Amino acid sequence: MLRVKAGETDRMGLLFERYHRKLFGFLYHMLGRADTSEDLVQNVFYRMLKYRHTYTGEGEFRSWMYHLARNVLADHVKKNRHDVRHTDVADVAEYISGGAHADERLQKEQEVATLHQALNKLTPENREVLVLSRFQELKYEEIARVLNTSEGAVKVRVHRAMNELKKIYLRIEN
Question: At 125, phi and psi to the nearest 5?
Fold first, then answer.
């Protein structure tokens, strides 16, 4: 952290790798919500960077980090007093324990959420044809019967819908 304070901000990546699971576990135990805990972990690391000048190097780094985490948590609780939902610990046990596949699983969940968000932005016609072909795994011939159109028209619609979905997905992702 002293190097980050001295301007080597690229060292934050190392600190993130070392401590993000521990922070997640702390915040999750305090809140009981995985999605919010993940967001708050990001806020803690943002504050570490923003307030790096306050780190003196005296005492344990973890103490300073958890102090920031408690402040982030307190700010969140004040702002969201009315929002009290809890998640089953079993749903996030791998994240808390820092399992080997936790990062991959989180990445996949984020990609799926982005995909669903993009799908919801499609026109109903395009969403329908993609759901039928990709999620329900209907053949183009079957979709043509469902939609009362030709197989060639279905192929064109699927192609166009995929292109539109790709554009929307990339826009959301960035």
Answer: -65, -45
Amino acid at site 109: E
Q: Give CA–CA dist 115/170, Å, rounded.
A: 10
- Looking at the predicted structure, is the pLDDT value of residue 165 above 90? yes
Q: Are 133 and 158 in contact (CB under 8 A)?
A: yes
Cα angle for residues 32, 94, 37 (degrees, 5° grid): 35
pLDDT in tens, 94-106: 555 555 556 677 7
- Structural contact between residues 160 and 142, judged by C-beta atoms closer than 8 angstroms: no
Instruction: Give how far Cα 148 sits from Cα of 123, 127, 137, 143, 153, Å.
Output: 18, 17, 18, 8, 10
0.90 cut: is pTM over it?
no
